[in-house]
Specification:
transferase, 11 helices, globular, 2 domains, Arg_biosynth_ArgJ, eight-stranded mixed sheet, Ubiquitin-like (UB roll)
Length: about 375
């Protein structure tokens, strides 16, 4: 079933010939009204021109009206030409929509170091038909993903719809991840921006697939006010819920993955330490490999916790897997065959209690398989 966008938003996509596969690769997301927005992007020093331009637009504080995205080409590490091509993509999208270029955010994802074929963008943009549905946009922004990622929620009549892509090169600060959330709620921009930083830290920045951060990732939310005002706190809770669903969907669709891993840490000295510990476990190559093999090797979890920087006493830590206690300050007797069978589920939950304080946090990852190596060994060849 097609996912309808919030009031005032339209989207569309086309096959511009940027992806060698010939699949949809150029997309527009448009608001009929000026939208306040909040934004987070990669901290990678090799950031793409689209990220530099996005930061400048964000600093201006001016509203957005549209986002143009190309997939299949990161337009990164392409010198001064890359910056000119990114500006040109914004100008072409603005011309197509009757907007000013500074009302259009750009995003690119794909292979690094290949010049963006702007002529294909120019030919493709007029072919995009806009409609009030998220699905064509969600399909067009994919690269190595196996499925589109869309989530939605409603708060007292106002709608939130989130669209994301991401499968590999995922270890946020942020990752090869693009996330676009839109709502018809009327919100104060400063309150949205302040809240968005925390939401991103607790959701998108807690995803890890392979420990590699990207040059192009971003997460943005646009609110056009077409519905009207809603209570801020329930809205922000729903917004975080949509972001979390997208984050988990990215982890579940990790390159070559067969299962989603959720690591939940409680009892940490602080929430930040809990998140750090959870992400260290989710990113451990040894534990990810054990997860793939359905091996309840809890020692790898404990070792990852120990190098996370979170404070704890190993004699007090408790670790359970799929609800099965494995460790409590020392070895616990457990049925290894039963634990192994439990790890065969599509979602595997690791619960850690550090017994140091009130801090809690989650991280989202996946198992490591031979298919991950195959995909990335052949990515550009």
């Amino acid at each position: 079933m097609a996912v309808r966008l919030p009031r005032g938003f339209r989207a569309g996509a086309t096959r511009a010939g940027i992806k060698p596969s010939g699949r949809p690769d150029l997309a527009l997301l448009v608001s009929g009204l000026p939208a306040v927005w909040a934004y987070a992007a990669t901290k990678n020093l090799a950031a793409a021109p689209s990220i530099h331009r996005g930061r400048a637009l964000y600093a201006s504080g001016k509203p957005l009206r549209a986002v143009v995205v190309n997939a299949g080409n990161a337009n990164c590490a392409t010198g001064e030409r890359g910056f000119a091509d990114d500006r040109r993509m914004a100008e072409l999208a603005a011309l197509r929509l009757g907007l000013a270029p500074e009302e259009v955010l750009t995003a690119s994802t794909g292979v690094i170091g290949v010049p963006l074929p702007v002529e294909k963008v120019e030919k493709g943009l007029p072919q995009i038909d806009l409609a009030p549905f998220a699905d064509p946009f969600a399909e067009a922004i994919l690269t190595t993903d196996t499925r589109p990622k869309v989530a939605e929620a409603e708060v007292e009549g106002a709608r939130i719809v989130g669209i994301a892509k991401g499968s590999g090169m995922i270890h946020p600060d942020m990752a090869t991840m693009l996330a676009f959330l839109v709502t018809d709620a009327s919100l104060p921009q400063e309150a949205l921006r302040e809240a968005w930083r925390g939401i991103v830290e607790r959701t998108f920045n807690q995803v890890t697939v392979d420990g590699d951060t990207s040059t192009n990732d971003l997460a943005v939310v646009l609110a056009n006010g077409a519905y009207g005002e809603v209570p801020l706190e329930p809205f922000l809770e729903a917004l975080e819920g949509v972001a979390r669903k997208l984050a988990k969907a990215i982890a579940r669709d990790g390159e070559g993955a067969t299962k989603l891993m959720v690591v939940r840490v409680v009892g940490a000295a602080t929430a930040e330490e809990a998140r750090r510990a959870a992400k260290q476990v989710a990113g451990s190559l040894l534990w990810k490999s054990a997860l793939y093999g359905n091996d309840p090797n809890w020692g790898r979890i404990l070792a990852a916790l120990g190098r996370s920087g979170a404070r704890f006493d190993p004699l007090r830590v408790r670790i359970s897997l799929q609800g099965i206690p494995l460790y409590a300050g020392g070895v616990l007797p457990f049925d290894r065959e039963a634990a192994s069978r439990a790890m065969g589920a599509e979602e595997v939950v690791v619960l850690v209690d550090l017994q140091e304080g009130p801090g809690e946090g989650e991280a989202y990852g996946c198992d490591l398989t031979e298919e991950y190596v195959r995909i990335n060994a052949l990515y550009t060849t």
